Amino acid sequence: MNFSDIVFDILTYGIFLYSVVLLLFYVFIGLYSIGETNNYLHRNIFTDYRLLAASIHIPSVSILAPAYNEGATIIENVKSLLSLYYNNLEVVIINDGSKDDSLQKLIDRYELEKVDYHVQYKIPTKEIKGIYKSKSPIYRKLVVVDKVNGGKADALNVGINVSSNDYIVCIDVDCILEQDAILKMIKPFLEETDARIIATGGVIRIANSCEIVDGRLIKVHLPGNYWARMQSLEYIRAFILGRMAWARLNGLLLISGAFGAFDKRIVIKCGGYNHNTVGEDMELVVRMRRYMEEMKLPYKVAYIPDPLCWTEAPESTKILGRQRNRWTRGTIETLKLHKIMFFNPKYRLLGMLSYPYWLFFEMLAPLIEFFGFIIFVLMTFFGIIEWSLFVSLLAFIISFGYMYSAFAALMEVTSYNMYRRKTDMAKLLLTALTEPFFFHPFGVWAAIKGYIDLIRKKKSWGEMTRTGFGTTQTKS
Amino acid sequence: MVKILLVEDNILIQKTVQLKLKKEGFEVICCNDGKDGLEKLSSELPDVVLTDMMLPYVSGLEIVSAVKTIKEKEIKVIVFSTMGQENIIEEAFKLGADDYVTKPFSLTELTIRIRKQLK
Amino acid sequence: MVLLTFSKKSFFHFIQPSHLYIATLAFLAVTFLMVLALYTYLYIQKRRFFRNKLMTQALDDCIGALLIERTQDDLEKNVTPQLLKYLKKPISRQLAIDQLINTRKNISGEAINNVIWLYNYLNLKEDSLKKFQSNVWYKKARGIYELYMMNQRDMLLKIFKRTNSQNEYIRMEAQIAIIGFSGFEGLVFLNTLTYSLTEWHQIKLLEQLSTFNQVHLEKLPKWLQSSNKSVVMFALKLADVYQQIFVHDEVTECLKDENEKIRLQAIKTLSRIAVDNTPQILQDQYDNEEYATKLEILRQLAIIGSEEDIPFLLEKLNESDDNLKLEATRAIMKCSSNGEEIVEKKIENDNIPVSILKQVKYEQVR
């Protein structure tokens, strides 16, 4: 055996082991999520959320919605936020230095006036230009903050400083929430026993092609656009299987920026959102968990599988690519910031399982795949590839992917079954067949671009990020 | 005939109240959600509006305030609310509600309250 | 997923293409079965949906007619043969129970007796009992829920035995049921409860109690001293909601509890049942407290405080945290007729942000 043989062996065995562990993880996640979903459904089937809506004993909640150049839809979005079922609610819209007429539109429509309001900068942020409230009692819940542009994390931090309530629900302003969304998100906090609930994550669903009137979801349709439809499947897989299983293990690392509820006291203790990363949503959850672990306090991050939040997914490869590029950078930055936890028993499950999983199977996966692809091209070029093996491996991997997708579809149908038109499911399943050939390679390529951008230290978090598209991460 | 607009998303309750009020000799128009309620309000111009507080799309409070902007005729508004929402009831009155009924409510009581408003 | 593109004899000595193809076939077979299951499920759901739709219509008509019926006679004529036909299937029976419960939640008065009559007449109790006797927790909990919503008082004792069940959901439904049957007297289960009541659970109990006329809660002192912290918490809320002034001493005692949430609620409760020296008690407590409880003390002093509390509140304008200053300002403005002047003077002397006073002034105008 010569040297190159040994290197080759290490590589082959290493990658084989990696793949086997990954597949086993998928199988585990799939099976483990079933029990949790069923449990959740059984627990809540006859819960009367209206009772909670009516009670005077419910905790106070502030919704924080940063808006950047959302003038086109801001009026409807705010209207739908104001009609949410929750009594003790404050809706804080943070105008992050928009260049359009969002603020004026809000002032006109909701009869806003600039008010005297003292803000304590518990978390340091950019300057606040003014705080507005409505003169009309119908809109008493509404608070609009006008601030100097500073990005999403900064806007959310301003919202945290301004909000006067115990719990915060952070959302993207263009998301469409179901009317009982806040009730369902707050319930886990009320059910806490010994372990403190520090945050609740919610499901994001794709709103493309859905019927939406006045900021309300009227009817759910499967997206007509290929890329959006593919993302519908991806979101089902991530939210119904992945997150559910991780939540059951109490190992959830990511709550989508588009929809999550937090215990404000802990958020403030941790210093709020980090504005130096493009993955501020994931970073906050990781930091909060790390804080609780270091304080040795029992805690839990809860998760609600009900489809409560609907968002428009990118339909063009250009925007989708940027989104995935950003997700990759966000993941890398977050994991780098908290590298001390890597296989660190002090952090228990967080350090021993969640962190390594994210490092190996979320962060490094695109890199390893890309590397494999390069080798494949090289070997073809030099004519040393063994085609029979290659084809069989490809078939093995692809068929496993199909199985996983079919399982996700089955779980969706038996739990919430949002896509009710006759052909919807068939379309979704057919779309799944194309995944390994178009959508998946595209995702890998976008992630690689993320790596490249990060190496070049490019921090493009400027304007494009608030086009309303995908500030959410969906990876499992 | 006295025309009543009933905005209630719970179909069973809607049907029951409708049956009862018809029996009492009222004309009843039903809506399943707040949006429909607002539309029917301006097209039908009822004498009395009965509305739930928690409705799909448009809240009961908005219906109350919409009723009070109608100049063509004086319309009475009675709101249903689930128990304990005192501050919501207060708000509804601020916006011009004429009476409220807490759920669960008795059908007889509801008719009495409607008649009282019509006097 | 990863493309394994290596070819190497030494390694693939163990794994050969044929193995992988077998696995592929297995995966594809499972995929196929899942898709089949998916469509079968959709088909069943669809059939069920149409059935349910027709059934709900028939049932709604029947319930509606029953509810406006003045007398108890002739109720049977409203139950159509068609409805009875639907009710042969268990799933339709469940739907019927759900609709009856829905009615019960929204309609009150005499009419509801007719709904309960229908429940008994259709023998739906059998279904609920079957669930109650089941060993599966969610079925049992559901059974309890149905039985008390349909006012089946004869089940009281059997349900009472479940109020300390080790399953959280069974326990909760049983407790709610007992309150539903017996009102405040039902609270006796608190004497022996060994498990904790979650906040959600407490909210449900309080809502359930709100339909009953209040009585003297003689056991309250005992609950306030319970070793079960969640019972203490709940008792504090009861004292608050029903203004049980006679437990003032026991509630004051709770300020010594190490659990912050209990102290927070005790502060709120004390304010609701305040006597002459309550503001002083809260003041004395202030320095022992943490941030959230300090805030709460200031908030409550705004409600129960008087001119006498002004010196104490003025001191708090020098707290380092702005929210404490804000609450203190609010309290001063509430407690004193010339609060504004007092605060203004203090602000000038001690260099406190004037925006705090401005905000409070704005709030007062509103």
Architecture blueprint of SSEs:
The complex is a heterotrimer of chains A (476), B (119) and C (366).
Chain A: H1 3-44, H2 49-54, E1 61-67, H3 74-82, E2 89-96, H4 102-109, E3 112-115, E4 128-134, E5 142-147, H5 152-162, E6 167-171, E7 176-177, H6 181-190, E8 196-206, E9 211-213, E10 216-219, H7 226-248, E11 259-263, H8 264-270, H9 280-295, E12 299-311, H10 317-337, H11 348-363, H12 365-382, H13 387-415, H14 424-434, H15 439-455
Parallel strand pairs in A: 1-2, 1-6, 2-5, 8-12
Antiparallel strand pairs in A: 3-4, 4-5, 6-11, 7-12, 8-11, 9-10
Helix pairs in contact in A: 1-7, 1-13, 7-13, 9-10, 10-11, 10-15, 12-15, 13-14
Chain B: E1 3-7, H1 11-23, E2 27-31, H2 34-44, E3 48-52, H3 60-69, E4 76-82, H4 86-94, E5 99-103, E6 105-106, H5 107-118
Parallel strand pairs in B: 1-2, 1-3, 3-4, 4-5
Helix pairs in contact in B: 2-3
Chain C: H1 17-68, H2 81-86, H3 90-106, E1 107-108, H4 111-121, H5 124-133, H6 137-149, H7 156-160, H8 168-182, H9 189-192, H10 199-209, H11 220-224, H12 229-241, H13 248-254, H14 260-272, H15 278-286, H16 291-304, H17 310-316, H18 322-335, H19 339-350, H20 354-365
Helix pairs in contact in C: 1-3, 1-4, 3-4, 5-6, 6-8, 8-10, 12-14, 13-14, 14-16, 15-16, 16-18, 17-18, 18-19
Description:
- The complex is a heterotrimer of chains A (476), B (119) and C (366).
- Chain A is of the alpha/beta class and 476 residues long.
- In chain A, 51% of the residues lie in helices and 16% in strands.
- Chain A is built from 15 helices and 12 strands.
- In chain A, a hairpin with a 2-residue loop joins strand 9 and strand 10 (216-219).
- Chain A is globular.
- The two termini of chain A are 41 Å apart.
- Chain C has 20 helices and 1 strand.
- The longest helix of chain C is centred in the first third of the chain and has 52 residues, at 17-68.
- Chain C is extended and about 80 Å long.
- The model of chain C is unreliable at 1-8 (pLDDT under 50).
- Chains in contact: A-B, A-C, B-C.
- Chains A and B meet through helix 2 of A and helix 3 and helix 4 of B.
